[in-house]
Amino acid sequence: MTPGHYMLWAVIYFACLCSASLANNPRVNFREKEKKILDQILGQGKYDARIRPSGINGTDGACTVNVNMFLRSISKIDDYKMEYSVQLTFREQWLDERLKFDDIGGRLKYLTLTEANRVWMPDLFFSNEKEGHFHNIIMPNVYIRIFPYGSVLYSIRISLTLACPMNLKLYPLDRQICSLRMASYGWTTADLVFLWKEGDPVQVVKNLHLPRFTLEKFLTDYCNSKTNTGEYSCLKVDLLFKREFSYYLIQIYTPCCMLVIVSWVSFWLDQGAVPARVSLGVTTLLTMATQTSGINASLPPVSYTKAIDVWTGVCLTFVFGALLEFALVNYASRSADRAADIHRETMKKKRRELEQKPLVRHPGDPLALEKLRQCEVHMQPPKRQSCCKTWLSRLPTRQCSRSKRIDVISRITFPLVFALFNLVYWSTYLFREEEDQ
């Protein structure tokens, strides 16, 4: 045989070997295997989703469910309704030995379901929930994974509005603790126990942004509750929020402080400028009242005094005090005018009497001596005063200048008292904030 024939026989022999190998090792269709396994473990009459799984090692103990979650966003924290909204991915994992299956030599890691009613599910509910909904765009955001050793992982994305009772005594220098509580509705601890997953049970998205709060930290804990029907397993997450003070400093504290200072301008206006001083006092008072109403409109009516109530109340008192000060100045000015008119009339009468009597000095005449003594007093040169007496002499002391004296005293008293109030206010509430922290 020629070399060409040997080559041809070698090719034919190699082709036969390849065909025999393919016949002995057909390609495995894992999707078909998954369908057969699901039909095998979840088929009719083989699995009852109404029956809870057994305890550890097939005992009749309680079924243990490990819980963890991922906080995706916190959209709002409402002070008035005392609630907050959160979006999270919630996960539960438990062992159901009835769902064990062959993993085909480790090549089938898990089975995936999208229908939660096919397997038994824990009856967990959020005890402080007000509203909630699932996400179904584009498809329902839920899956169930069944692992070869019978472990079941349930994951779902949900949005919740939860109640958050708040203590607003230090508002807006406060910190608030909002809880997320999860409990079993019907199964007692003898049948179902919730546990936090070991390691990191709660994860928070990076760069979580809140409009007026900062999430300082969160704590996980247990909150089992006892009722007349038994004890129920409960988990909770405490979220500690710190209120951002910069917003309130710009929107509330600074405008109120400016209104108080503007009300002091009336102390420097002439006491005769009645329209200007009245307009300034009334305008600042109404603006301050409107500011206070706007602040209270965004807060719930509570029975205790808040830190912001103390601030707005004192600022409103200062503005009202400036308006009352002008009323006192106006009254003192009119009283002085009346006294001046009476004094002027008296002086006229005395002048007329002096004009009728000739100023002649008769020996032993006491009236003439007294008049002469008065003339000598008025003709004496003024004495030189010290610096302190000169400064004090600038303060009006006569009855006709009593109104000016009130204005001068108010220019000093009002700013000093307001500065003292600020010192006491900030030292008190900032110290209490540190104590709470």
From TrEMBL:
Q: Work out whether the entry's keyword set contains Signal.
A: yes
Q: What is its main location?
A: membrane
Listed A to Z, the keywords are: Cell membrane, Chloride, Chloride channel, Disulfide bond, Ion channel, Ion transport, Ligand-gated ion channel, Membrane, Postsynaptic cell membrane, Receptor, Signal, Synapse, Transmembrane, Transmembrane helix, Transport
Where in the cell is the protein located?
Postsynaptic cell membrane
Q: Name one GO cellular component term.
A: postsynaptic membrane
Neurotransmitter-gated ion-channel ligand-binding domain residues are 34-243
Annotated Neurotransmitter-gated ion-channel transmembrane domain residues: 252-364
Q: Which PROSITE patterns match?
A: NEUROTR_ION_CHANNEL
Give the Gene Ontology MF terms in alphabetical order. Answer: extracellularly glutamate-gated chloride channel activity; transmembrane signaling receptor activity
The family assignment reads:
Belongs to the ligand-gated ion channel (TC 1.A.9) family. Glutamate-gated chloride channel (TC 1.A.9.4) subfamily.
Protein name (Swiss-Prot/TrEMBL)? Glutamate-gated chloride channel
Q: Which organism is it from?
A: Chironomus riparius
